[in-house]
Specification:
The protein is built from twelve helices and twelve strands. Helix 6 links the parallel strand 5 and strand 6. Helix 4 packs across helix 7. The strands form two sheets. A seven-stranded mixed β-sheet has the order 7-6-5-8-9-12-11, with helices on both faces. Strands 1-2-3-4-10 form a five-stranded antiparallel β-sheet, with no helix packed on it. Helix content is 33%, strand content 22%. It is α/β, with parallel strands linked by helices and 340 residues long. The radius of gyration is 20 Å and the shape is globular. Bound molecules: zinc ion. The site of zinc ion has 9 residues, from loops.
Length: 340
């Protein structure tokens, strides 16, 4: 196993057996790896159903059309005391798609909050804030370890909100462009990133921009893509010959699925390294490096003690035949070069 900056390892091997499991939705073709006759195992959290492919291990998420929390929250919201209970204890159990979308539109405010040395943070927010400061050096180290000097390269940071990564790394690159899907986030970042081109683009829409780049970075964003294969088919044309793509993403573990179990926007698919690697190869890229982050050994690190208690729900998913067993919230990264 390779931690950032250490020795290389091979991608995890596929399981090549297909067992009928309790909780499976039957034998079918996986839409991510294309393997036919694979078992898709279903497991659930409060608001979502997850499907995990037995072959490639990729986990996708769909929101339940109905869940008991909807009715309970609606009932509580009818009275003033009930509204207080919801706001204080239960807000994360309500549908959060609109809230999360609005939060992405305020990335500018988030930028100031992160960069302010006086900012106090606890729990998940503190973990995330530390990561924002650490990421520029981590990315530079991966490229340096592969003898790539980024100081003369044109770099695209895909969905790079809130822009703190761009702010911290821009002087180390030849040039930098950053995308975000929410127009409000684009405007917010522009104010803090003079000399950096910031434009609106969505991983789930046709990519209109014409600029090509030497290096494209996907930092913790491929989980937003409902169909990364379709997205990358278009994006690959915008990478210069010999150019590089760096992808950092959460491994498809039970811990990572549960880490986002309250969220409605945050991730669509936890892609496995093998699926990402296959998509890169299909588009003329050769993998030159691979590693796994040794951080985030347990997903509960992201939650307060009271939230963590609720996550005992995850124990059932772990005990269920065919369910993923790994409670860690680790990540992987792949560096690949365009060879055709
Ligand atoms: Zn699959």
């Amino acid at each position: 196993m390779r931690s950032l900056g250490e020795s290389t390892r091979l991608l995890p091997a596929h399981s090549n057996t297909c067992r009928q499991l309790n909780g499976s939705v039957g034998v079918t073709t996986c839409r991510f790896c294309g393997e036919s006759r694979r078992c898709l195992t279903r497991f659930s959290s409060f608001k979502h159903d997850f499907l995990r492919c037995d072959a490639c291990e990729t986990i996708s998420r769909t929101s339940k059309a109905k869940y008991p929390g909807d009715a309970i929250l609606r009932l509580l919201s009818k009275s003033s005391p009930g509204q207080k209970v919801v706001a204080r204890f239960l807000s994360r159990f309500s549908r959060r798609g609109t809230t999360e979308h609005d939060q992405y539109g305020k990335q500018g405010e988030y930028f100031e909050w992160i960069m302010n040395p006086e900012t106090q943070a606890t729990g998940f927010v503190a973990v995330k804030r530390q990561a924002y400061f650490r990421q520029p050096a981590e990315v530079l180290n991966v490229f340096a370890a592969n003898d790539v000097d980024l100081s003369s390269r044109s770099v695209l940071d895909v969905s790079g909100g809130p822009g703190t990564f761009a702010f911290l790394i821009k002087d180390r690159l030849g040039s930098l462009a950053v995308t975000e899907y929410h127009p409000g986030a684009v405007m917010g970042m522009q104010a803090y990133l003079p000399g950096v081109r910031v434009f609106q683009a969505d991983l789930n829409d046709e990519w209109q921009d014409e600029e090509t780049f030497d290096v494209v970075l996907y930092r913790s964003v491929v989980v937003f893509a409902s169909d990364f294969r379709k997205h990358f088919r278009g994006l690959a044309r915008k990478v210069a010959p010999g150019g590089l793509v760096y992808i950092y993403s959460a491994l498809p573990t039970l811990g990572n699925a549960l880490r986002w179990q309250y969220e409605d926007y945050t991730f669509n698919v936890l892609y496995s390294p093998s699926v990402i690697s296959a998509v890169l190869a299909e588009n003329g890229f050769r993998q030159v490096d691979y590693g796994e982050s040794s951080e985030y050994r347990h997903f509960l690190r992201f939650f307060t003690p009271s939230e963590a208690a609720v996550h005992l729900y995850g124990v059932w998913n772990r005990l269920m035949p065919g369910g993923p067993r790994d409670f860690s919230a680790r990540a992987f990264w792949i560096l690949a070069r365009k060879i055709v």
